[in-house]
Amino acid sequence: MRFGLIMSEVGNGLRRNVSMVISVILVTFISLTFVGAAILLQSQIGQMKGYWYDRAQVAVYFCTDSSEIGNCDLAEATEEQKGLVEAQLASPALASLIDRYEFENHQQAYERYQEQFSDNEFADFVTPEFLNEAYWVNLKDPTQSDALVESLSTLAGVEEVKDQRKYLDPIFSALNAASFTAISIAGLMLIAAVLLIATTIRLSAFSRRRELGIMRLVGASNRFIQTPFILEGVIAALIGSTLAAGAVLAIVRYFVQGYLGSTLETTTAVVGMTDALIVAPVLIVLGVVLAAASAGVAINRYLKV
After folding, report:
1. Using CA atoms, how far apart are residues 156 and 153, in angstroms rounded to an integer?
2. When comparing pLDDT for 224 and 189, which is higher?
3. What is the pTM of this model?
4. Which residues of 192-217 are buried (b: 16+ CB within 10 A; e: fewer)?
5. Can you give the residue ranges of every domain in the chain?
6. Which biological process, per GO, is one annotated for this protein (predicted)?
7. End-to-end alpha carbon distance in the chain
8. 100 phi and psi, to 5 degrees?
């Protein structure tokens, strides 16, 4: 009987404030969708960093006849100079840092260039001798590339020692900025959702002030009076957070795995349904907790007035 009465009050409250309840649902849905997207984006960035940073190489470029930068003076690196670099790579100081390395001659560099820039109209004008010979080095720990750069960049015949991770950092910085922007927008919208829930509960309580007065006169406890209002906020937020969880699952299933998976030919690890299934319940719990806390504070302050 007591449970039935509470649920009856909840139903009455939701019917009296339909427009406000719909607003709470929509704001909760949008804000938590942003939160879920930001979480998945951070997860994706982490996976991409692990994938690409492990494969990023350090390139030791040798001088060519047209090189004037680094230790070059318009002279091709000699075999002796190349041998000195290889000896340095095999030395105890660097060998412990290196996973593997391989030498790329002019012809191999030319073939790779033609493969990568086959659609470039200027590719036909490039000759093998114009491209640098190089050692491509994979490190056990890519973060220790500075030791390799410092040891090899001053050797004769070396034009430049380039860490490929430097090309990746701006990309990940942009992705992190996008993620932080999404988190900021989500945070603002969550604040709006909390305030909207509190306003909805206070309006609902005001519209039933005569009923609340009668309940107090007959000895109803504050907990009994507060429970229907808290449940109203929780139910509205639960619907919105459930929709947000569904949206996150749909984004991963149909956009990330469906559209991107079929459009982009890449072996890069991407977030999957397992990640989405972890995020979805987090969004639901977050929405319910925020709604319960906001509604509880709002009705408690109203009853004290």
Report:
1. 8
2. 189
3. 0.65
4. bbbebbbbbbbbbbeebeeebeebee
5. 3-53+169-303, 55-165
6. cell division
7. 29
8. -165, 165
pLDDT, residue 1, reads 40
Q: What is the mean pLDDT of residues 272-279?
A: 87
DSSP, res 136: E
pLDDT at 225 > cutoff 80 = no
| Residues in the chain, overall count | 305
Question: What is the structure's pLDDT at 172?
Answer: 77
Q: Which two tokens stand for residue 231?
A: 């449940």
- For the stretch 60-116, pLDDT in tens is 999 998 888 888 888 899 999 999 999 998 888 888 888 888 999 989 888 888 877
Distance CA 225, CA 304 (A): 12
Show Cβ contacts of residue 164 under 8 Å, excluding neighbours closer than 6 positions: 56, 57, 58, 59
Residue with tokens 């607003």: 23
User: Helix H segments across the chain?
Assistant: 2-16, 18-55, 79-89, 92-95, 106-116, 145-152, 165-207, 209-217, 222-250, 261-263, 273-304
218 by Cβ neighbours in 10 Å (0-12 / 13-18 / 19+) ranks as exposed
How many whole angstroms separate alpha carbon 45 and alpha carbon 177? 11
Distance from chain centroid for Cα 98: 30
